[in-house]
Structure formats: C-alpha cells, structure tokens
Design a protein that fits this description.
The protein is of the alpha+beta class. It folds into 2 domains: about 55 residues, PAS domain (Beta-Lactamase, 2-Layer Sandwich); about 100 residues. The chain is built from 4 helices and 5 strands. The strands form 2 sheets. A 3-stranded antiparallel β-sheet has the order 1-2-3. The protein has a two-stranded antiparallel ribbon with strand order 4-5. β1 and β2 form a beta hairpin. α2 runs antiparallel to α3. It is rod-shaped and about 110 Å long. The C terminus is likely disordered.
Length: about 180
C-alpha cells in the first residue's frame, strides 16, 4: 500500500498514468504478480474526476518465463559440453593428423621415386598403407568436420585428401580393381 500511495498515485496524477509490475498479497499471504496500469481521468478544466486501475495477473507468464530460463540454462550447459568435446576432438585430430600425413606422403614419395622398380607386392603394400592413412584422416575429418565454435557458428575442417599418384604399375592395379579408394 505504501508504494501505491507514495509512487503509483503521485505518478499517475503528475503524468496522467502509471504502469508497472507490482505484487498483491492475498488474505492467505500469497503474493500475486500483476501488471498494473493506473489512469488519472480529468475533466476539461483539469480537475481530477477518477483514478482507475487495470490489473493483469502475471502468474502464468512468470511460470513460463521461469521454465524458459531453466531451458536456456540447460541448453547453455549442453552447448558448453559440446564445445568441450569438439575441442577434445580437434586436439586428437591435430595430434593424429601429422603422423598420418607423414605416412601418406612418405608412401607416395616411395611410390613416385621407386614405384617402377619395386615388386608389385611392395607397390600394393605402399598403396594400401597410403590408402589406410587417407581413410583414417577421412574418419577423423568426419568425426570433427562439423562443430560449433564459441560464437555458435558452424565451422568445417579441411577438404578431402588428394588422390594417389598414377604410375604405370598402378594403372594395371587400378584396372584389376586392386587400388584402394
């Protein structure tokens, strides 16, 4: 009541209206949040004739707002966990990427430099080794490809690995369907 007599009514008399959120207490002591609009009605001479109030019960709205805040907090926690997992995934991918690139590039270099002089079985093993490194990098890429950064934006990792070099011995293997994809 003190707020009404010290703030609401004087403001309505001064500006012609007052509006804001207040709490009413029932006889049982329960507080009810309401949106109140108080209007000062005056005649043509400016004399106050009537003060009216319109009250809107905000209990349902407050319940919905509370649920929304809880949902937002849960979503933020899940997003944080997702970002933590994405960071771990990126770190693991980074740690595995360098050795896999080395294996792939070394196998390719041996095939490029010595491929025609190597026995077919050795070329097939190097192709298999390079193909396995490429497939492993693809699996790592697929597990980390799409992630959410700190701003909530989607980001993607590097493009697909390059194909194996072509050699006369590889063309025969490719024709027989033995070259790894």
């Amino acid at each position: 009541m003190k707020f009404r007599t010290e703030v609401i009514v004087p403001e309505a008399l001064r500006n012609g209206y007052w509006r804001g959120e207040v709490r009413f207490q029932t006889g049982q002591g329960t507080e009810i949040p309401v949106w109140q609009t108080m209007v000062a009605h005056r005649d043509r001479a400016g004399e106050l004739k009537l003060l009216t109030s319109i009250l809107r019960d905000l209990r349902e709205q407050k319940t919905v707002e509370s649920r929304l805040r809880e949902s937002e907090a849960a979503l933020r926690a899940l997003n944080s966990q997702l970002q933590d997992r994405a960071a771990v995934c990126a770190a693991v991918a980074h740690d595995l990427d360098s050795p896999l690139i080395t294996i792939d590039e070394d196998a390719r270099r041996v095939l490029e430099e010595y491929g025609p002089r190597l026995p077919e079985e050795a070329r097939a093993l190097l192709q298999e080794l390079s193909g396995a490194a490429v497939r492993m990098r693809s699996l790592i890429d697929a597990s980390c490809r799409t992630r959410i950064d700190a701003r909530g934006a989607w980001s993607h990792r590097r493009p697909a690995p390059r194909p194996l070099p072509q050699h006369p011995g590889q063309a025969k293997a490719a024709g027989e369907g033995q070259q790894p994809a």
